[in-house]
Design goal:
The chain is of the alpha/beta class. The protein contains 22 helices and 19 strands.
């Protein structure tokens, strides 16, 4: 980025300080962006007219003073630029008045209305009508009196006038990029409302590069939830775009998108941005698109009316997305508009990968019946303004080059933290795009899953099922461990002798006991299998070994003797129990990767599953289940979660009952040894406290 660009962006953002104390970011952005756009349109028109009038040796103002020129000037402005503005309402003339402290609010209102009204009844009407309706110059937040408002507005316009927009340079997009920068800055300040109008530039870049891969020019691009239009414009930075089409529900954001298009030099005849709900009232019904990009509102509500089953966009699937989650409705809508040679990339919450019911049916149809899904790309959490949940990019093609597999990319761990936001670095973006372009398999990052793999997972597309990012523990060298224990034992003997010597001098009992090694000199056999067992281990589902049951609400219970268990352990003691006996507790929500064994009467809350063991040795099952990477089976995009069916479907290898007992008893003895050593450690800590209390106790003699 040039020094000029940096300076321009800093100056523009500084101007916002004049309003920042009076209103929040989501409001003052309408003024700042609106005034920048007004100046742009004004100077663009003036430059164009002066150029057209060169041969007549007249300026725009001079020509307007001649009645013979007026209609020709209006026609030229409307035809070439889509709007018109009389010279008296130009930004430059308002600035002359502001410099001598004249009242300009009335002229400014007329100027903004003139631009919108000038396009009425022309081809550019949809692109310019009501563009400035969110610039409320009567708002009390600008000041109590008209004079107060005039001072604030005059100061902003004068500050804007001090900045050179370099509009004479037709090839430059500096102002458009600066406008985009301001939108991003407003988004970072606007919190949850930011999602209505802005997609982070890094995510936009990934989507744009994917949908334009191996192309230099595309016929058109479409975004059904276009926000400020940043995604559409990002595509034009990758390839030449014929037509830009989009639809935006929010009126204010719709205005912003049209401004953004024009500021980036997109001619009014080359974009078609509509306002309205693209699911309920689609505005581009008969158009197919070569590239489609979108970052729709995550899990938004929609009508899901049965009448949509007769709509060509949804009818083939036999199911509609649920009312509470429109994610797949947007997918279906976009696929309907995707051309046969097109590519579509959409950002969605992780839940679309594994949620069941109607969404499961739609997902299976897309993957199994149509084979449209080309790639699943997991993004880091907390990269979007207003939400911290991890997200995923789904890439679809109707004519896929690699029909036999789906590429899964786990890019969730590769980012940098910037203040309270995570951000994708250029190298992270390049890695994602290059991996997709080359369909490359990288250990712990990407995997090409065959259709058989996906079917085996019952069309659950949760990324950890296909890209194993689990970091296995380094292999333990048993000889090294035993050797280290021997060294520790020898050191302990020396320390014990030292402690005993001092205790004898003090006349107190030394906490010294004979050390008994817990390992013999004999080495364990490499296979670590006890002698006398040779039968093969049997593969079976966890559901064949135990029943998984949900914990229950406990608010009706009184204080009592039975432990109430949560994911963190005992919460309190209550007067009733849910289950009595040996059970394995598995986290349902939150901490899902630390199962617990219990042999008691207890009650569990609903964030825990408890189990009834049907067969097999309970303690063996506990150790076996504890060795599973449960995060791989996480079914939530936010707080980690497991379902009972998911747990029961996981396969484990099980030996005979006698071998189970032998293994469980051995590991239990190791656990007990660890417990004793921890108690021994605590006892030595208390012994030290006793010494400190007694030695440093000061008594008068």
């Amino acid at each position: 980025m040039s020094n000029y660009q940096n300076s321009l962006e800093s100056k523009l953002w500084a101007i916002a300080d004049d309003l920042r104390g009076n209103m929040d970011a989501n409001e003052f952005k309408n003024y700042i962006l609106g005034f920048i756009f007004y100046r742009y349109l004004s100077e663009k028109l003036e430059l164009h007219m002066n150029e057209e009038l060169k041969e007549d040796e007249l300026t725009f103002e001079q020509a307007w003073a001649d009645d013979d020129f007026k209609q020709d000037l209006i026609d030229e402005g409307i035809t070439a630029l889509g709007y018109f503005l009389e010279p008296q309402y130009l930004f430059s003339n308002l600035i002359k008045k502001a410099k001598v402290n004249e009242f300009i609010l009335g002229d400014l209102v007329k100027s903004l209305n003139y631009i919108s009204n000038s396009s009425m009844g022309t081809d550019s009407q949809d692109d310019f009508s009501n563009l400035f309706e969110d610039v409320d110059l009567n708002s009390s937040k600008l000041g109590k009196s008209d004079d107060d408002k005039n001072k604030v507005i005059s100061k902003i316009l004068l500050n804007l006038n001090d900045i050179d927009f370099k509009l004479e340079d037709d090839e430059s997009d500096i102002l458009g990029d600066a406008y985009e920068y301001l939108i991003s800055q407003f988004a970072s300040s606007a919190g949850k409302k930011a999602g209505e109008f802005y997609t982070p530039q890094e995510v936009s870049k990934i989507l744009a590069k994917i949908v334009t891969l191996n192309k230099t020019k595309i016929r058109n691009v479409y975004d059904p939830t276009c926000g400020s239009g940043s995604l559409l414009l990002r595509v034009s930075k990758e390839v030449e775009v014929g037509d830009f089409c989009g639809q935006e529900l929010n009126q204010t954001t719709y205005n912003l998108a049209r401004m953004n298009m024009i500021l980036h030099g997109v001619k009014y005849v080359d974009f078609d941005i509509k306002q309205g709900d693209s699911l309920l009232y689609p505005q581009h019904v008969h158009t197919k698109f070569e590239a489609i990009v979108a970052n729709p509102p995550f899990s938004a509500k929609w009508s899901s009316d049965k009448g949509f089953l007769d709509d060509d966009r949804f009818s083939a699937y036999g199911k509609l997305a649920p009312k509470s989650k429109a994610d797949y409705a947007f997918v279906q809508h976009m696929l309907f508009h995707l051309d046969e040679n097109g590519t579509m990339a959409i950002v969605l919450p992780h839940g679309v990968l594994f949620r069941g019911a109607a969404e499961g049916v739609i997902r299976k149809y897309l993957v199994d019946e149509k084979n449209y899904l080309d790639a699943v790309i997991g993004l880091p959490a907390n990269i979007f303004y207003g939400t911290s949940i991890p997200t995923v990019i789904l890439v679809f093609k109707k004519c896929r080059e690699e029909e036999q597999d789906v590429l899964f990319i786990d890019a969730s761990k590769e980012f940098e933290k910037v203040k309270n936001q995570n951000k994708l670095r250029p190298e992270d973006i390049d890695k994602i795009v290059n991996t997709y372009a080359n369909r490359e398999e990288i250990e712990k990052y990407s995997h090409k899953a065959t259709m058989d793999e996906i079917r085996e997972n019952d069309f659950n597309l949760n990324i950890p099922r296909y890209v194993d990012t689990f970091e296995e523990e380094e292999p333990i060298d048993l000889d090294e461990v035993v050797s280290e224990l021997k060294k520790i034992n020898e050191e302990m003997k020396k320390v014990d002798a030292e402690i005993k010597k001092y205790c004898d001098e003090l006349g107190i009992q030394a906490p010294i006991f004979d050390w008994v090694g817990f390992m013999s000199e004999e080495k364990l056999v490499p296979k670590l299998r006890f002698s006398g067992f040779s039968d093969d281990w049997e593969s079976m589902k966890i559901g064949d070994c135990l029943d998984v049951k949900y914990g229950k609400d406990y608010k009706h219970l009184n204080e009592g003797q039975y432990p109430l268990l949560g994911t963190g352990g005992v919460m309190e003691y209550v007067d009733d129990f849910l289950y009595s006996g040996e059970s394995i507790l598995i986290g349902r929500k939150g901490t899902i990767d630390k199962p617990k064994y219990i042999n008691d009467s207890f009650w569990t809350v609903d964030t825990l599953f408890y189990t009834e063991i049907k067969k097999q040795f309970p303690k063996f099952l506990f150790y076996c289940i504890s060795n599973i990477n449960w995060l791989k089976y996480n079914e939530a995009s936010g707080v980690p979660s497991l379902s009972a069916n998911n747990i029961k479907s996981v396969k484990i290898n099980v030996p005979s009952l006698n071998e189970q007992k032998k293994i469980a008893n051995f590991i239990t003895s190791i656990d007990y040894k660890i417990e004793l050593l921890e108690k021994k450690y605590e006892s030595y800590v208390n012994f030290k406290k006793y010494l400190m209390q007694q030695i440093f106790a000061q008594k008068l003699r």
